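So, who can interpret the following?
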Amino acid sequence: MIRIIGILVVVFTLYALLMMSDPQARSLENHINLERRIGEWGVLTLGVGFVIITGGIDLSIGSVVCLAAVGFGLFLENGFNPYIGAVLVLIVSAFIGWIHGVLITKGNLQPFIVTLCGLFIYRGLAQLLTLIKFKELGQKFSQGWDTPGRVLRDSSRDVGIGDRQDLDAFLFLQRGNLPLGDWLGLPDSIGPWLNIPMPLVLLFFLAVVATVFLHQSVFGRYLYALGFNEQAAKYAGIRTDKYKTIAYIL
């Protein structure tokens, strides 16, 4: 607990120094953008946290996210419903994690080597899949399509996505806000500061789920035992290979 409090003190101190260093940093727009980015990257850290708890490491997370984003765009371009495309992307990402887990547990390879190789492989696949699309996307931006979300929405008319409402609802998870200030009826000078970006809401929800999962379930205790002493966990009857693989899948 003391360690967590120390980390929070450092984080809030750095945040306060940033706010005092530049008036623009204190703007509402920067505040919302910062919360949105914290939510997006925070969700990724939750997944990596499971691996770190077991004593492993995953250097490929950024490349997997890149490949997943490219794959999701290709699914949309070929007429898939956004929700179906998201499920397919999650399945592919879980399969990649399973491959990492098998190579590490059954192949006795170092996590650093496996995930470092994966970093280059998945980033290369993403670049290969977008070799032609980069030029098309650049042309659309040059024509005034100023945000990726707008490119995605406007492109949906050309790629055969039947239900635009599904796409708009899906994009709300990334670009929308929880209007807490509006619900409370606060004045315009205060209300917008309490509107929480949806990525941050999603991070809070998943963080609570992960906390309960790790501290209130047998699986979580097994992960901690695995990270503390893998040999002792194995002698205690814990299927270490299985749980380490599951950690990489998550």
Q: What stands out?
A: The beta strands are 177-178, 196-197.
